[in-house]
Design goal:
Blueprint: E1 2-4, E2 10-12, E3 15-16, H1 17-25, H2 30-48, E4 51-52, E5 55-56, H3 59-80, H4 88-101, H5 105-117
């Protein structure tokens, strides 16, 4: 969950907002798109927590996940189309807030950790 660390920075578990921004700004073009798609893929796993065997047990979470999925895939499409109406800071803020709102910050950390070990994004998204 997002929290204020000892140094006053917002944190996603152990990763700060600024660290996520620094990571994202090092990505370019298709790397950014693939990273965002990887996050979107992981968001589907987060949404699965809202239902079991076809029965929705947490409709609010499912709606929040769906709305965030819409925003996240829209960001990926904008990056692919080279639309520049959103800054990197705004993109990271949306990612930060979306996963935090769903209490799923650990998924961002996992994706960043995997990308840090496999900068070509060749690793599995599962």
């Amino acid at each position: 969950m997002a929290q204020i660390g000892r140094d006053g920075l917002r944190e996603i578990r152990d990763m700060t907002h600024d660290q996520l921004l620094a990571f994202y700004t090092k990505l370019h073009g298709s790397e950014r798109v693939l990273f965002l798609i990887d996050l979107a893929h992981n968001l589907t796993v987060v949404a699965r927590d809202a239902y079991f065997q076809g029965n929705v047990n947490d409709p609010e979470k499912l709606i929040k996940a769906n709305e965030f999925q819409h925003r996240l895939t829209g960001i990926a499409a904008d990056v692919l189309r080279a639309k520049t109406h959103r800054t990197d800071e705004q993109t990271i803020e949306r990612i930060f807030m979306g996963f935090t709102e769903l209490d799923a910050a650990q998924f961002v950390e996992r994706v960043v950790a995997r990308w840090s070990h496999d900068p070509n994004g060749v690793g599995s998204t599962t």
